[in-house]
Specification:
Residues 146-179 form the HNH nuclease domain. With 243 residues, the chain is an alpha+beta fold. The chain has helices at 9-13, 33-38, 44-54, 125-138, 166-173, 207-210, 221-237, and strands spanning 17-21, 27-32, 60-63, 79-85, 177-182, 185-190, 204-205. The protein contains seven helices and seven strands.
């Protein structure tokens, strides 16, 4: 299968970066330092979490060039670290399948329960009702959009979506920004797009304070994590795998 490459956050942000390679020298992720320092994620634990999102790995550590193991709370630095597994082996890592983003400008099938991507004028009846429920809960743009993926139960439950302004909806669908979970709060992360949107990078949203209604109607964090993973594959790993 042909791998697709993407414009990465490193290209968009410019400046110094922290990158991680595996035992074969293959680059796993590249994180702009300005992105991390202003996005409340300037620590090794974040870099490891991105590796786990993008590669078939789930328990490891990072080393400096001299072999020193980096503490999880250590800040990122300009340069390269090497990933190894917890048992000390240095694998050639395998990329996770993804990223998965819906087709842009696709209308819903007539009579179906499907939804659209960034095209509110072509919504299905189900999606119109879904959007109305979100508007009742959020009132105005929450600065994020409909959650992706499947989940048990009613797909059009308000907890599976977010109310967004149209332009932010489109850039969310394209993986240009996402919400990073940090101890129950949501931090806006801008991976690409217009420089004018950088002012939102690092902004903190507290769902319990932002959302109206019962706690169970708050955004489902599992689906936000899924979206963040897809964005990380696209903007921090930089290429597709398996599609």
């Amino acid at each position: 299968m042909i791998s697709i490459t993407y414009d990465t956050a490193a290209l968009t942000w410019g400046g110094e970066t922290f990158q991680v390679v595996d035992g074969s020298g293959q680059r796993l992720v590249q994180i702009p330092l300005a992105f991390a320092r202003t996005g409340r994620c300037d620590h090794v634990q974040y870099a490891l979490s991105v590796i786990y999102d993008c590669w078939e790995e789930n328990q490891g550590r990072l080393h400096r060039a001299d072999g020193q193991v980096l503490a999880l709370d250590a800040p990122l630095f300009s340069g390269t670290a090497t990933y190894s597994r917890a048992d000390g082996t240095s694998p050639t890592c395998v990329a996770r399948l993804g990223p998965r983003f819906k087709e842009y400008r696709r209308a819903p099938v007539d009579g179906s329960d499907g939804g659209t991507v960034s095209a509110s004028s072509r919504s299905s009846n189900q999606q119109n009702r879904f959007r109305s429920a979100l508007h009742s809960r959020d009132g105005i743009c929450f600065y994020y959009t409909e959650a992706l993926g499947d989940s048990p139960g009613d797909l059009f439950n308000p907890s599976f979506g977010l109310l967004l302004r149209a332009d932010l909806h489109k850039t969310f669908d394209h993986g240009l920004w996402a919400l990073y979970e940090d101890e129950g709060n949501l931090v806006v992360h801008i991976f690409g797009g217009r420089l004018s949107q950088r002012e939102f990078h690092g902004k903190v949203i507290v769902p319990a304070q932002r959302c109206r209604g019962a706690a169970q109607a708050q955004p489902d964090l599992r689906l936000l994590r899924f979206h963040y993973q897809q964005c990380a594959m696209r903007r921090l790993r930089g290429f597709s795998a398996g599609f």
